[in-house]
Structure formats: structure tokens, C-alpha cells
């Protein structure tokens, strides 16, 4: 099985759409170039930030392929391939594997309410079908059910292909409990930008991030300083980014971050239903945060 | 041309994450300076440099100097606390203060620091508030017999130290009160480049040591020659000749010992500027260029970040990154944004043509630079970075925020 280095800032990249709703590969390339130049340590393509739920197989394959080609092996590319239908999760994983990804991100099955044995069987089935490293994604806010640390650890133990967890439970206790008892080499990644620093103090290795879409440079610097144990500096960067981290969730992710990236000139502000573009009342705050960080220019002379 | 240990690109990258202005200190060069100073006095086995914390009061810098074998010269309670928190205690601290409050004496005594008294009346004051330690040092002010220099001023006008009569009495009083070990200290000049000054100071102190022995019977254990070693702020100046200073002092030392004026006392120094001054840089971005009766280059740093030019009219060399080889054919004043017209880093300076967004480096800001910073006009203090020997920049102080500045205020109605 492929080895994968999961460390530092990994961007859950948005999937850009054109005005007519079609997949915008050129814009995706622009974003990926920006990510590389910002010193990011990995890319998750077609995750929930990438609106994967609204992509058909052909679009999914093109987006993943684009990421693999544009990144060119410089950093790991991970594809979101999760589903609450195990067979479907396997199909997506196979498509991603064909495009040449380095790993898979699988959200824990939602809606069906699997039992513990069912959860293990789900990940085992994927691992047997597709020989790629798997990151479990625990995000109770989206799936409606929390997978507790004992369960994460059980999956890690019984399914060796599961090498990491993206923890987005929002519970620092839970993150600590996984790290404390994790088998050697098992990686915990924060799934919440604003919890990255506290999680890394406890031993998390990085974050699968939304805010890195907008500021790969600052967010990767935050993770690098934290990896070096330079907490003082990491704190400065944390507080510098905190407002933007919060604003990114003023509406459902990726609505605000797509608005931001469109203000920055990278993409069209287009989402696929059932998501719609950011409400006007929330735009000034996004704009203010971007200006503060120098991510968009202040208007010179005008107004 | 003055050397800069970092590139324009490195500063642009750093400034993207942490806005200018900020200070950069070069660790390797600071270590080198400490080694050079200590090395040039290697003939005195007891020689010790007590780094003047006031020059660059940052625990990361102090730790580096501790590692090089330096102690600390402290002048206030926070400086004593900084030393303590950096793991520097006992006789690795020399406490020299004036108009000293009781609590500072108490803390110095508690830490076992060598206490250096500025006034004869402080013996009783120290005894009353902290008790007398087994070792005491006294600060000598030579008065009209020496000339001083621009920063410290004429010794007669200087508030520091005691007269000859007072200092002799002080040893006698302390001895009577049971103090057993003694030191002698002076500090006549600051930022002095001329060799003779230091040799003359040593001669003065060695003579005084003889008189102390003769008149009071007190036997000195050390003589602290003070600091005052200057650095070449201007490009045309050259470095202080440490070898010549050490050599001159050595001859006088041997003479004094051989003629039985004093025993083989340990020599101490308390340099700050010499150690960190040339190895610290204030990095700032040009905000505006203004043409009125003169051309003004407005920086994002101001006198609150570096006070020396405004306070002493001190010269700090300025380099515009990326324009090192451009002709210096534009005369301008380089200014900050304080509402004070002495907030000028340079007046009528010939510099290359400067545009907003250019990054400028103010040289020789490593001592009494950030340390002398203040908050007037609500200016916030900048971050400090250490350029480590592996080439990375380590933040050793974050920039102040407005909340830091407001933290002591009461906003309730």
C-alpha cells in the first residue's frame, strides 16, 4: 500500500463552478497553484468543502485528475470518497485511485445508523477493495452521529489501511482521548481550523483546513510553527486568522469561503443546489477579514 | 556598505506573515561578540562579562549570552525577575541601580546578586530593608578628575556614584558592619570608541583600589570597569580596538599587583551595546513619500520603536533593501508618524530614490533600540525575531496589540 505523509496544513479545496454551473477546471488549477505557492502540505479534493455530494462520476474524476496532475506529486493528494452506501464509497474510491491519488478521506456513514460492527465492516470493505491509505472523517455536525474515540481506535486497530482521523467533533477532550490511546503511527488531524492549535498542542499533526483555501501561507505557517513547538508564534498566527476562520462558518461551509475566493478573483461565486451563494448581509464581514489579512487590496483612490 | 545577514526576499516573506516594523537579531554574531570580548581578557582567569540587560531585555538573548558564560547587569526589579526566569541567579547577577527602591534591594538580596551601591546612605537603607549581604560593591564617580562623554555627561553633573571620600567611608562602614567581600565599580563613559578612555578608567580604579586597601583595610575581590564600549554606528567609523584596550589594562593591572597596590582582583565588565548593538536591525516599510519644503520618507516605524535618533541625535545607518547599489542621490528626512517633530530617523540623509512599499533596514539597533520603546501616541511595540544559526527566524517577542495597550485601563462607567 502507498505510504502517505500527513502532516501540517492540508487544504480541503473548494470545487469551482462556472456561471452556468459547469465544473470550472481552469479555476481549480488556479487554486491549486495558489496552494502550492503558499507552501501547503496536502490537498483534499472533492471533500465536503468541495461539494462532492453534487458531482457526477465524470465530474468527480475530472476534478480529482486535475488535482493529481497539477500537484504533480509535490504533496499528497487525498480524495473525498465517502458515502453512506458502502458499495458507492468503494466505487468512488476506485475512480479516485484510477486518477492516481495518494489517499482517501471517508466520512463515517450517516443516516443509516450503523452499529459498531457495521462501521468496522464498512471500512474493512473499502480497504479490501482499494489499496490506499484511508483517513476517517468524524464530523457529527454533518453526519448526525458522533463516532467516539473507542470506536475510532477500534477501526484503526482492525483496519490497518485506516492511518488517520480527521476529527471535527469540536471536542478537544475527544481529540485528546484518541491521541492518548492511538496506535503508533496513527495520525490525528484537526477538522476544525480554530481547534488546530489546541489539537496540535495535544499531539495532532495538522489540520484538514477550510481557511487554507484563502490563506495557505498563514495557515501552513501556523501548522509549521506548531510542529516545531513554537507555540508563541503559532498563537500569534492563530489569532491573526481567527476572525476569518469564524467567518468561514457564518453560513454552511463552503458558502462563505467560495464568496471569499471569488472576491479574491480566483473563482465564480457559484454553488450547486441545495447550497446557494452567501447572503448579502454577510459579505461585508468576509470582505473586511480578507482586507485585514491583505488577501484583497484595499480600494485605492476610489470611494 | 554595512552588512545585512538576511535578504530582501526573506524580509518580504516574513512581513507577509508578521507585519513590519519588527526587529531582527543575529544569534551567531551576538555569540561571536561575546566570545571576542571574553577572549580578549583571557589573561584574567576571573574575568566576567555581565551583560547589561537594559540594552536588550529579552530572555532569548539572555539565554544565548548565559550560554556564552555571561552574567547579567540588572538595574531594576523586572530585569532581576527576567534574570531569575532565565535561570541566572546568585553572583551571576550584578545589581547596579540608583534612587533604588527597597523592594529591588530585597529581590537582589534574595537572589544572592552582587549589590552595587550608588550612594553612601544606601548602606543603611539596604541594611534596614533587606539586610547586608556578605559581598558589597560601591560605585565611584570621579567628579572633576575625569571628563566623561556625550551620553553620560560630565561626571560632576552625573547623578551616579559616590565621591572619593564617600566611597572610602563606605568601605570602612561596611567593613565595620561585618561585610567581608568587596567590589569596586565605575561607569564614566558610554558608547566610547577611543582606547585611552578605558585604559585611563582602569588606571583610576587600580589607584583607588590601593587607596582603599591603605585607608580602610578592605581587600577588593573584583573591579567592575563598567561598560561603555562603543560601536561604529557610522560606516566610516571603525570598531573599538579591544586588543589594545585589554593590553593597556593588563600592563596597569600587573603594575598594580606587583607594586602591591591590590591583589589579583577579578575584572568585570558590563557591556550591552558592544554585544548586541551591531547585530540587531529594525526592519520597516516605507508608507508615504511627501514633498514639501523637504522630501520626507514616512516609515511604519517611528521614534517609539527606536528612540535614539530623536533622543540623542544618534546616527543609525539606513539601507533600502534591493537598492544597495543605487546611487545615494536624493536628500531626505526619514521620519515616523509620531506627532513630534523630533520623530526623525535621519535628517538631510542622502539615500537612493525611495518609493512607498520599499523595505528599509535601520542598522545597529540591537541595543537600546526596542528596549527604549514607548507607547506615546498609542504606538504599539513591535515584534522581535532571532535569526538563528540554521537560518530560520524565531519570534522571540510578539507584537503588542491594542488590547495589550488597553489592559491596564478601566473602561467601566
UniProtKB/TrEMBL annotation, chain A:
The keyword Lyase applies. One of its GO terms (cellular component) is cytosol. It is an enzyme of class 4 (lyase). It catalyses: L-aspartate 4-semialdehyde + pyruvate = (2S,4S)-4-hydroxy-2,3,4,5-tetrahydrodipicolinate + H2O + H(+). One of its GO terms (molecular function) is 4-hydroxy-tetrahydrodipicolinate synthase activity. It is found in: Cytoplasm. Pathway: Amino-acid biosynthesis; L-lysine biosynthesis via DAP pathway; (S)-tetrahydrodipicolinate from L-aspartate: step 3/4. The keyword Amino-acid biosynthesis applies. InterPro entries: Aldolase_TIM, DapA, DapA-like, Schiff_base-form_aldolases_AS, Schiff_base-form_aldolases_CS. Its EC number is 4.3.3.7. Pyruvate binds at residues 49, 208. Keywords: Amino-acid biosynthesis, Cytoplasm, Diaminopimelate biosynthesis, Lyase, Lysine biosynthesis, Schiff base. The active site is at 137 (proton donor/acceptor), 166 (schiff-base intermediate with substrate). Its main location: cytoplasm. The record marks 48, 111 as: Part of a proton relay during catalysis. Belongs to the DapA family. Catalyzes the condensation of (S)-aspartate-beta-semialdehyde [(S)-ASA] and pyruvate to 4-hydroxy-tetrahydrodipicolinate (HTPA). This is 4-hydroxy-tetrahydrodipicolinate synthase. It comes from Candidatus Kaiserbacteria bacterium RIFCSPHIGHO2_12_FULL_53_13. The lineage of its organism: Bacteria, Candidatus Kaiseribacteriota.
Automatic annotation (TrEMBL), chain B:
Its EC number is 4.1.1.20. It comes from the Bacteria. Pathway: Amino-acid biosynthesis; L-lysine biosynthesis via DAP pathway; L-lysine from DL-2,6-diaminopimelate: step 1/1. Its cofactor is pyridoxal 5'-phosphate. It catalyses: meso-2,6-diaminopimelate + H(+) = L-lysine + CO2. Substrate binds at residues 273, 308, 312, 340. InterPro entries: Ala_racemase/Decarboxylase_C (IPR009006), DAP_deCOOHase_LysA (IPR002986), De-COase2_CS (IPR022657), De-COase2_N (IPR022644), Orn/DAP/Arg_de-COase (IPR000183), PLP-binding_barrel (IPR029066). Pyridoxal 5'-phosphate binds at residues 228, 270-273. Coiled coil: none annotated. The active site is at 339 (proton donor). Keywords: Amino-acid biosynthesis, Decarboxylase, Lyase, Lysine biosynthesis, Pyridoxal phosphate. The modification N6-(pyridoxal phosphate)lysine is found at residue 54. GO terms for biological process: lysine biosynthetic process via diaminopimelate. GO terms for molecular function: diaminopimelate decarboxylase activity; pyridoxal phosphate binding. Residues 47-276 form the Orn/DAP/Arg decarboxylase 2 N-terminal domain. Signal peptide: none annotated. PROSITE patterns: ODR_DC_2_2. Belongs to the Orn/Lys/Arg decarboxylase class-II family. LysA subfamily. Homodimer. Specifically catalyzes the decarboxylation of meso-diaminopimelate (meso-DAP) to L-lysine. This is Diaminopimelate decarboxylase. It comes from Candidatus Kaiserbacteria bacterium RIFCSPHIGHO2_12_FULL_53_13.
Amino acid at each position: 500500500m502507498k505510504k502517505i505523509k500527513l502532516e501540517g496544513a492540508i487544504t480541503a479545496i473548494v470545487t469551482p463552478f462556472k456561471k452556468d454551473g459547469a465544473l470550472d477546471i481552469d479555476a481549480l488549477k488556479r487554486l491549486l497553484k495558489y496552494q502550492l505557492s503558499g507552501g501547503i502540505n496536502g490537498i483534499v479534493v472533492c471533500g465536503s468543502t468541495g461539494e462532492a455530494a453534487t458531482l457526477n462520476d465524470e465530474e468527480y474524476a475530472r476534478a480529482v485528475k486535475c488535482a493529481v496532475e497539477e500537484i504533480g506529486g509535490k504533496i499528497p493528494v487525498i480524495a473525498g470518497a465517502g458515502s453512506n452506501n458502502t458499495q458507492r464509497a468503494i466505487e468512488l474510491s476506485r475512480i479516485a485511485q484510477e486518477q492516481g491519488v495518494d489517499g482517501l478521506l471517508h466520512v463515517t456513514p450517516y443516516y443509516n445508523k450503523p452499529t459498531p460492527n457495521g462501521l468496522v465492516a464498512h471500512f474493512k470493505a473499502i480497504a479490501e477493495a482499494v489499496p490506499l491509505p484511508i483517513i476517517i472523517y468524524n464530523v457529527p455536525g454533518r453526519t448526525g452521529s458522533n463516532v467516539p474515540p473507542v470506536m475510532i481506535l477500534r477501526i484503526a486497530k482492525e483496519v490497518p489501511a485506516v492511518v488517520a482521523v480527521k476529527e471535527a467533533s469540536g471536542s478537544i477532550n475527544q481529540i485528546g482521548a484518541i491521541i492518548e490511546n492511538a496506535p503508533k503511527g496513527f495520525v490525528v488531524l484537526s477538522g476544525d481550523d480554530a481547534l488546530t492549535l489546541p489539537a496540535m498542542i495535544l499531539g495532532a499533526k495538522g489540520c484538514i483546513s477550510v481557511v487554507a483555501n484563502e490563506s495557505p501561507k498563514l495557515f501552513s505557517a501556523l501548522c509549521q510553527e506548531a510542529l516545531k513547538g513554537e507555540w508563541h508564534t503559532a498563537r500569534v498566527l492563530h489569532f491573526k486568522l481567527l476572525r476569518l476562520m469564524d467567518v468561514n462558518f457564518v453560513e454552511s461551509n463552503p458558502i462563505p469561503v467560495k464568496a471569499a475566493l471569488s472576491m479574491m478573483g480566483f473563482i465564480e461565486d457559484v454553488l450547486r443546489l441545495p447550497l446557494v451563494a452567501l447572503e448579502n448581509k454577510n459579505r461585508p464581514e468576509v470582505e473586511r477579514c480578507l482586507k485585514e489579512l491583505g488577501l484583497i487590496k484595499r480600494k485605492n483612490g476610489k470611494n | 556598505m554595512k552588512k545585512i545577514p538576511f535578504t530582501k526576499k526573506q524580509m518580504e516573506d516574513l512581513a507577509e506573515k508578521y507585519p513590519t516594523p519588527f526587529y531582527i537579531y543575529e544569534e551567531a554574531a551576538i555569540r561571536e561578540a561575546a566570545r571576542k570580548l571574553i577572549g580578549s581578557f583571557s589573561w584574567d582567569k576571573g574575568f566576567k562579562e555581565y551583560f547589561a540587560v537594559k540594552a536588550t531585555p529579552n530572555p532569548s538573548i539572555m539565554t544565548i549570552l548565559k550560554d556564552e558564560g555571561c552574567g547579567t547587569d540588572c538595574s531594576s526589579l523586572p530585569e532581576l525577575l527576567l534574570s531569575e526566569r532565565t535561570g541566572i541567579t546568585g553572583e551571576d547577577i550584578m545589581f547596579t541601580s540608583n534612587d533604588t527602591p527597597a523592594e529591588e534591594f530585597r529581590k537582589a538580596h534574595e537572589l544572592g546578586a552582587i549589590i552595587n551601591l550608588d550612594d553612601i546612605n544606601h548602606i543603611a537603607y539596604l541594611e534596614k530593608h533587606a539586610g547586608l549581604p556578605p559581598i558589597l560593591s560601591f560605585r565611584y564617580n570621579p567628579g572633576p578628575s575625569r571628563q566623561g562623554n556625550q551620553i553620560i555627561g560630565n561626571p560632576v553633573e552625573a547623578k551616579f556614584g559616590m565621591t572619593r571620600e564617600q566611597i572610602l567611608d563606605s568601605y570602612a562602614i561596611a567593613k565595620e558592619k561585618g561585610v567581608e567581600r568587596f567590589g569596586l565599580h565605575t561607569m564614566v563613559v558610554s558608547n566610547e570608541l577611543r582606547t585611552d578612555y578605558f585604559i585611563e578608567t582602569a588606571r583610576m580604579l587600580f589607584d583607588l583600589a590601593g587607596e582603599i586597601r591603605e585607608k580602610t583595610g578592605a581587600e577588593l575581590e573584583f573591579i567592575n570597569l563598567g561598560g561603555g564600549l562603543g560601536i561604529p554606528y557610522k560606516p566610516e567609523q571603525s570598531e573599538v580596538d579591544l586588543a589594545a584596550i585589554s593590553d593597556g589594562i593588563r600592563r596597569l593591572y600587573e603594575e598594580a599587583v606587583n607594586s602591591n597596590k591590590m591583589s589579583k582582583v577579578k575584572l568585570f565588565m558590563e557591556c550591552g551595546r558592544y554585544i548586541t548593538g551591531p547585530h540587531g536591525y529594525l526592519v520597516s516599510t516605507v508608507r508615504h513619500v511627501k514633498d514639501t519644503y523637504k522630501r520626507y520618507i514616512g516609515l511604519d516605524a517611528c521614534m517609539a520603536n527606536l528612540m535614539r535618533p530623536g533622543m540623542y541625535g544618534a546616527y543609525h545607518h539606513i539601507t533600502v533593501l534591493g537598492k544597495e547599489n543605487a546611487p545615494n542621490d536624493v536628500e531626505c528626512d526619514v521620519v515616523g508618524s509620531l506627532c513630534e517633530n523630533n520623530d526623525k530617523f535621519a535628517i538631510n540623509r542622502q539615500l537612493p530614490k525611495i518609493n512607498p512599499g520599499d523595505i528599509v533596514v535601520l542598522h545597529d539597533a540591537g541595543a537600546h533600540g526596542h528596549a527604549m520603546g514607548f507607547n506615546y501616541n498609542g504606538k504599539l511595540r513591535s515584534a522581535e525575531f532571532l535569526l538563528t544559526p540554521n537560518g530560520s527566524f524565531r519570534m522571540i517577542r510578539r507584537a503588542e496589540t491594542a488590547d495589550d495597550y488597553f489592559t491596564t485601563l478601566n473602561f467601566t462607567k
